[in-house]
Amino acid sequence: MPIRRLAVPLTTLALLGTLFAPVSTAAPTAASTSGRPESGVRGVTAITRVHTYGQKVEAVAVEYAATVNPRTLDADTFTVTDSVYNFRYNPIEDLDRFADRTVTRIYTNSAPELREDGRSRAGRYVVVELAPTDPGGNTVIVSRCPTVRCSVKVNEDLPTRVTQNEDVYAQPGHGDGRGRLLSPGSSTAHPLTGRPVDLLVDEFAQDTYLRNGMVLPYAYHLPSDYDPRRRYPLMVILPGHGMGWDGDNLGVQLAADIPATAWLGSEWTGTDEDVIVLAPQNQRVGAPAEAEIMAALVADFTGSHAVDPDRVYASTVSYGSTLAWEALAEQPGLFSAALVTGGFRVSADQAERIAASETPVWITHGLNDHLLPVSYGRDSAQLLRDAYRAAGAAPEEIEDLVRYTEYGNEAFSEPDYHAAYGPTYEDPSILRWLLWQERQGG
């Protein structure tokens, strides 16, 4: 019997950390009629979000000792500086290269949270929103490289710094004037304090699956109104090799790119339907063994959660395709359909067995993929079509069962032409197609 540890949501771990964190005994400096600051900046919290090509610092929340007067704030009040490092392009040494971020909105709030309307709410936090298109602010860094086991992880010591350039005042008692001086402007660069608020990623739970002595870490997300009496589609995200487990990068498959968190938002999927997301990390020991334990996890998870067994899907990034091809061939019926982005070539034998199960597959690939040649995508589509033709499928059936999209450079919002999941996930019609498929014979 597989043994699983009790799942612990990341938000719960964060709360436990605050319970046992050391508490400062220094009392804040009281404001006086002379205008001396009440206490200065008390903390800076990063707020991150996963964009198409990975998690970035989306905003910072600067904490003060009292409710802040928002009328004295503008885009010049703060400067946010961040590393320009991007693990896809830069050497790790560039982690020490910095540039200013672009401030897009600034407002007050009662908690370190974003406000969709960008309007100030009474509170002691100043939220400084930043342009996601800035080159800086990426949270994922190289973990172990260069080796054949090169991998990435989320940086536990984010380099983001905040400088308060101008004076910040408290909200005046009767709404008139500037209020008391909370913190004078200075050239001091304040580091982040405490744990960041990771939008959507914090909503996933972490767990571990054990089978035949092999350990498989995974994350999963249940809808906020999860009802065990319902049946939900299950999206299984199979990550790239660099997002596989290396011993210290737990959960990076959620942050390194968009496929896991995209299924939580209608802006990506184009639908309001609730989806359960399961995101295992491969163990980097070879596709057959990894596919076997992944398939066992999917079967176990499907049986223990409110999953519609006729709507279980695989979505892959790069190396994850090898696990999908293996599972589709070895365990027909496990997946109702698969979306393979920037992946490896399916074998002729695998294609023949996949055709026998009539599992729909959509393959996407970058024309100028620098890691896996575009021929891998083209060949996979052709091998599958040939297998269906040999099995007697009609041309219109083959078109429905095997779809192939090839992206030129202009389709990529960031120039990583191996990352075909980028333009794929930026096209909600492909994600909707995946959710529309149902297991044959279901």
Description of the structure:
By secondary structure, the protein is an alpha/beta fold. It folds into 2 domains: 39-198, Sandwich (Immunoglobulin-like); 201-436, Rossmann fold, CATH 3.40.50. It has 11 helices and 23 strands. The protein has helices at residues 10-19, 252-255, 259-262, 266-269, 287-304, 320-330, 348-357, 374-390, 395-401, 421-425, 428-436; strands spanning 3-4, 8-9, 43-51, 54-63, 78-83, 98-100, 103-109, 125-130, 140-144, 151-154, 161-164, 168-169, 181-183, 189-191, 197-198, 205-211, 214-221, 232-238, 276-280, 307-317, 337-341, 361-366, 402-407. Strands 1, 2, 16, 17, 18, 19, 20, 21, 22 and 23 form a 10-stranded mixed beta sheet that branches. Strand 9 (140-144) and strand 10 (151-154) form a beta hairpin. The protein is elongated, with a radius of gyration of 24 Å.
